[in-house]
């Protein structure tokens, strides 16, 4: 069965537990067709508005739904299926990334770092 997916991220300031009100929680608004490409697809989610020069711990996961979720008249389930949480380099320390003023585009914070 064909499926779609979208990314979800949590970025929490150093010292704040995941799930804290201090965390920035984002879910992509668009679903991406996973298709049948053996190399997979790339899911992207821009995170803006984090405090500058602040240490965050970070995690991401994928939500999945049936391919028809994007069809007219179809409503996404209120709680789509989730994949496991992934952390940058499978990091278990308090901080994963530090924000700073970005250089001119393009900016790539990390790639292929979720393990």
Question: How is this structure best described in words?
Answer:
The chain has strands at 3-13, 24-27, 32-33, 55-66, 81-82, 97-98. It is mainly beta and 115 residues long. It has one domain: Immunoglobulin-like (Sandwich). Strands 1, 2, 3, 4, 5 and 6 form a six-stranded antiparallel beta sheet that branches.
Strand and helix order: EEEEEE
How far is it from the N-terminal to the C-terminal residue, by CA?
26 Å
Molecular shape:
elongated
What is the number of strand segments? Answer: 6
Total domain modules:
1
Which structural class best describes the helix and strand composition? Answer: mainly beta
CATH architecture: Sandwich
Percent of residues in helices:
under 10%
Poorly predicted runs are none
CATH topology: Immunoglobulin-like
Largest sheet: 6 strands, antiparallel
Q: What's the number of helices?
A: 0
CATH class: Mainly Beta
Strand content: 25-35%
Mean pLDDT: 79
Radius of gyration: 16 Å
What's a quick, concise take on this entry?
The chain is mainly β and 115 residues long. It has strands at residues 3-13, 24-27, 32-33, 55-66, 81-82, 97-98.
Question: What are the salient characteristics of this protein?
Answer:
115 residues; mainly beta; Immunoglobulin-like; 0% helix; elongated
Blueprint of the fold:
Blueprint: E1 3-13, E2 24-27, E3 32-33, E4 55-66, E5 81-82, E6 97-98
Antiparallel strand pairs: 1-2, 1-3, 1-4, 4-5, 4-6
